[in-house]
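Practice problem: predict the structure.
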Amino acid sequence: MESREENGVSFFQMPLHYPRYSKKEYLDMPEWKLNRLLTEYGLSSDGDLAYKREFAMGSFLWPDLQHDSKSYPCHSFKDTSPPNKKVKEL
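Answer:
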């Protein structure tokens, strides 16, 4: 991450890689590492250890999704497109 200030204007460059820690790794992560991770992504590292863990997990973990038609309503739609018809060639 690059953070610098020029002429009173602050710049932030997002790191190239998205963190790939599991929920267990966040729960076991020491505070110094959470502070570094949050700061690296331009996020506040204020609060107690439990808050930082919860904040990091909420920021970087994808929610668990059920792969069924109830979770993905668009998958339950029937194909209503017209049957394939031969297109007249010009």
